[in-house]
């Protein structure tokens, strides 16, 4: 019987639809090559959905996600929707509820430097050396993002008015993500850096305590604890020495933007947000990039590499995933560059041109 994969495609806002178009074209080619059928259904999410229906996460979009094997997500948000009440904003009204609804507790963000892109990395050549390969395992459904209570109190506009959020982790949540990171490290270079702020935050003290307990089951691993401020610095100083970064939600958000830029651009970092089982939401780590949206110049690689992660984690199509990753590597080696990673002597292409090159490389 032929394999048929049902995917909810939610392009979102800004550059989302532009890079998604290329990702789905690539998926189409790969599905034919590796013999599986894709039933991709598109729906609005974020600002685009709000404009159309008054909700950033319409019931129909949520239902489509529930009826699918996974979600391929673009990005949401932009200045147009910043003024809305929190529950109607694309980020807080759609992306975060999707992560919570589908219990996507684990966010994987693999960052590596392609040899030919070492020059796009802002670090000195002697620090980049022959490249680095860092997998961030970021907890995604806890922390200050979701901890209650949060809100505003006091007379609006008065000097006494306050805004507050609650940073919170349960032992269970920390243990679950730590095990995931440790299992991942066992298949890699067996080194984990756990990120916290245990010199200040009670949440981090618990985090560190639990990580120290769980590591006892992994005697082959090397574990270091780093305060997040120090980690931000060490990543610039010695990126090659990192293997797996185990992060709480907020610190992982911040450090993965740093990791993305270390690879050369925000447009290069894919991401997999996964639940227990096979369901996942796959999206670039970067956002809707309002500054370049609509110009046809966004780098589609992060979105295309997110398709590779989707094939790997939800569909266990490892060969197809590797083929996409190899095709991306090949076009970079061939010198194709979008503006964000352009260097003299290379061939400058737009979003569609990069998609074309990858499809050609897959042939
Ligand atoms: N997953 C998501 O949906 C997601 C993630 C991050 C930010 N956002 C939202 O996106 C909006 C813009 O946020 P921001 O400006 O802080 O971050 P951003 O990641 O959108 O942009 C930061 C910088 O990176 C560049 N960039 C990002 N992706 C790129 C790509 N594919 N190709 C070339 N350059 C790229 C942008 O042009 C910009 O200069 C906000 O509304 C934010 O909340 C959404
Ligand atoms: C858009 C925002 C809610 C999101 C986050 O903070 O998790 C984004 O920055 C990310 O990195 O996926
Ligand atoms: Mg982020």
Automatic annotation (TrEMBL):
Gene Ontology terms, MF aspect: 3-isopropylmalate dehydrogenase activity; magnesium ion binding; NAD binding
Keywords tagged on the record: Amino-acid biosynthesis, Branched-chain amino acid biosynthesis, Cytoplasm, Leucine biosynthesis, Magnesium, Manganese, Metal-binding, NAD, Oxidoreductase
Pathway info: Amino-acid biosynthesis; L-leucine biosynthesis; L-leucine from 3-methyl-2-oxobutanoate: step 3/4
Cofactor-binding details, from the entry: Binds 1 Mg(2+) or Mn(2+) ion per subunit.
GO CC terms, sorted: cytosol
Residues that bind NAD(+): 78-91, 287-299
Subunit structure comment from the entry: Homodimer.
Function: Catalyzes the oxidation of 3-carboxy-2-hydroxy-4-methylpentanoate (3-isopropylmalate) to 3-carboxy-4-methyl-2-oxopentanoate. The product decarboxylates to 4-methyl-2 oxopentanoate.
The name this protein goes by in its record: 3-isopropylmalate dehydrogenase
Taxon lineage: Bacteria, Pseudomonadati, Fibrobacterota, Fibrobacteria, Fibrobacterales
């Amino acid at each position: 019987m032929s394999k048929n994969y049902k995917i909810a495609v939610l392009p979102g806002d800004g550059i989302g639809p532009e890079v998604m178009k290329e990702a789905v074209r690539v998926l189409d080619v790969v599905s034919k090559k590796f013999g599986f059928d894709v039933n991709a259904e598109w729906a609005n999410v974020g600002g685009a959905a709000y404009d159309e229906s008054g909700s950033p996460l319409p019931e129909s979009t949520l239902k489509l996600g529930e009826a699918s094997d996974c979600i391929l997500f673009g990005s949401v948000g932009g200045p147009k929707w910043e003024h809305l009440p929190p529950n109607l904003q694309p980020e807080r009204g759609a992306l975060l509820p999707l992560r919570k609804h589908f219990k996507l507790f684990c966010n994987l963000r693999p960052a590596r430097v392609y040899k030919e892109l070492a020059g796009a990395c802002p670090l000195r050549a002697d620090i980049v050396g022959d490249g680095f390969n860092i997998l961030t395992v970021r907890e995604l459904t806890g922390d200050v993002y979701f901890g209650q209570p949060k809100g505003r109190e006091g007379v609006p506009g008065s000097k006494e008015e306050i805004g507050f959020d609650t940073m919170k982790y349960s032992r269970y949540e920390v243990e679950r993500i730590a095990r995931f990171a440790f299992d991942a490290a066992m298949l890699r270079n067996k080194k984990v850096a756990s990120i916290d702020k245990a010199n200040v935050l009670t949440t981090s003290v618990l985090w560190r305590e639990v990580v120290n307990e769980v590591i006892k089951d992994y005697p082959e691993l090397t574990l270091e604890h780093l305060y997040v401020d120090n980690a931000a610095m060490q990543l610039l100083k010695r990126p090659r020495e990192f293997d797996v970064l185990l992060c709480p939600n907020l610190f992982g958000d911040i450090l993965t933007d740093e990791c993305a830029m270390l690879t050369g651009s925000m447009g290069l970092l894919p991401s997999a947000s996964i639940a227990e089982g096979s369901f996942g939401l796959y999206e670039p780590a970067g956002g809707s990039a309002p500054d370049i949206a609509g110009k046809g110049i966004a780098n589609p690689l992060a979105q295309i590499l997110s398709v590779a992660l989707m094939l790997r984690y939800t569909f266990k199509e490892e060969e197809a995933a590797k083929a996409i990753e190899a095709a991306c590597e090949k076009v970079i080696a061939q010198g194709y560059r979008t503006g964000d990673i352009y260097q003299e002597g290379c061939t400058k292409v737009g979003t569609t041109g990069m998609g074309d090159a990858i499809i050609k490389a897959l042939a």
